[in-house]
Backbone:
């Protein structure tokens, strides 16, 4: 009997000790994505790097358990990026307190070699576990890093979408870079991190289905912070207490994901997620970042702030696309033109149209190309569904991205068609056309 009492006591003692030694610590992940060089607030007073920095600093004030992860596409979206090939944007982003950054597809817009300039400008690591050069070396600083916060070793893995090269780059911009499958790359990195980190988080410029696949297939990953989809996720996706989150683009909000990490068990669970709007009415701007933004904006103002016309009303992005296709045809003397909606980066506000607004709509340096195709060669996607004469030859004009990117070329049915590249950029065609029209109604 005495033995049974001693055994029961010992069992209770073990349970009590296990509970006493369990240590749960909070890690708060502040996150952003798809800032796209929107260094000043939009015409609705949302975003802007100074206000974004102010919001992030307010969240981090007194927070010893906060990290800031940014999920790609920092550049390409306003003139300061296009004119100076992205480097000033990384310099200004140093004021946002980024702890780790995942390379996105638009970081390659100025060519894969320009990533090295971004690495030099940034005071935070550029991660890309699956965007690799020959021999398997990442094009970024590393595939993963370990960040220590609140006594927790946080392993952060950076990835880009699996169709990075085929779907979004051209042979010129990609160079020798290849993209490895996302889930397999994360699995390899997580295996390498196992035992070195207390919790593993993925920051990825990826499709949402890739983020969901990571959660479903890789139990070692506690959370996925996504970029690329500018609409983000309306709600946090959870699988066994692990989470995937993503925000709207252009710095109009920041996210805060709370993780509770059980150090003894080597497990974590998502404790909650919230989105925090960034507006000029609700956020105090960071003065140091505001000074840097103003300094760079002064440099571009002389180039892009000349008025070229007037918009009598606001044009939504779908309407802007139609305007651009019309401008392409009229300026290039073509019968058929096509502009993918994803290449239209902004709406056109009502009022005076400066070159700046047109740079924001078309920040890319796409050059115009011209070719000839018989009506029977032109598919519905390229022809816009218009009836065409089968044997008539039509002059077709596109941006060079549409004939150099594999996915676009296949979608438009222009593989094998000979196009001649011109000296004019699509953006300049749009500017010249608006200047001639003077008024858009």
Residues:
């Amino acid at each position: 009997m005495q033995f049974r009492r001693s055994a029961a006591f010992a069992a209770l003692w073990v349970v009590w000790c296990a509970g006493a030694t369990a240590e749960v610590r909070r890690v708060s992940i502040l996150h952003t994505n798809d800032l796209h060089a929107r260094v000043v607030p939009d015409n609705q007073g949302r975003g802007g790097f100074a206000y974004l920095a102010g919001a992030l600093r307010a969240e981090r004030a007194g927070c010893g358990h906060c990290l800031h992860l940014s999920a790609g596409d920092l550049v390409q979206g306003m003139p300061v990026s296009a004119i100076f090939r992205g480097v000033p944007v990384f310099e200004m982003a140093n004021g946002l307190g980024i702890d780790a950054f995942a390379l996105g597809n638009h970081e390659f817009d100025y060519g894969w070699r320009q990533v090295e300039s971004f690495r030099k400008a940034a005071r935070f690591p550029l991660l890309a576990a699956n965007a690799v050069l020959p021999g398997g070396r990442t094009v970024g600083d590393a595939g993963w890093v370990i960040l220590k916060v609140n006594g927790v070793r946080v392993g952060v893995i950076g990835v880009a979408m699996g169709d990075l090269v085929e779907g979004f780059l051209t042979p010129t911009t990609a160079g020798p870079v290849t993209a490895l499958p996302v889930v397999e790359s994360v699995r390899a990195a997580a295996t390498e991190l196992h035992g070195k980190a207390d919790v593993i988080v993925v920051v990825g410029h990826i499709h949402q289905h890739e983020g969901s696949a990571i959660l479903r297939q890789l139990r070692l990953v506690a959370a996925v912070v996504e970029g690329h989809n500018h609409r983000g996720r309306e709600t946090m996706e959870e699988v066994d207490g692990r989470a995937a989150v993503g925000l709207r683009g252009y710095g109009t909000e920041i996210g805060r994901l709370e993780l509770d990490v059980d150090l003894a068990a080597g497990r974590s669970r998502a404790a909650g997620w919230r989105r925090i709007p960034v507006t000029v009415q609700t956020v105090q701007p960071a003065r140091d970042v505001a000074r840097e933004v103003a300094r760079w904006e002064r440099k571009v103002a002389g180039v892009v702030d000349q008025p070229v016309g007037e918009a009598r009303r606001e044009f939504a992005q779908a309407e802007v696309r139609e305007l651009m296709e019309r401008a392409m045809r009229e300026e290039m003397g073509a019968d058929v033109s096509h502009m993918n909606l994803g290449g239209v980066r902004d709406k056109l506000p009502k009022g005076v149209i400066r070159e700046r607004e047109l740079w924001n709509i078309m920040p890319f340096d796409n050059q115009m190309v011209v070719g000839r195709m018989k009506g029977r060669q032109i598919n519905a996607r390229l022809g816009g569904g218009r009836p065409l004469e089968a044997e008539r030859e039509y002059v077709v004009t596109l941006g060079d991205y549409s004939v150099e990117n594999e996915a676009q070329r296949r979608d438009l049915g222009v593989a094998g068609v000979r196009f001649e590249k011109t000296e004019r950029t699509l953006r300049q065609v749009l500017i010249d056309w608006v200047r001639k029209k003077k008024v858009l109604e």
Observations:
- Residues 78 and 411 are 28 Å apart (CA to CA).
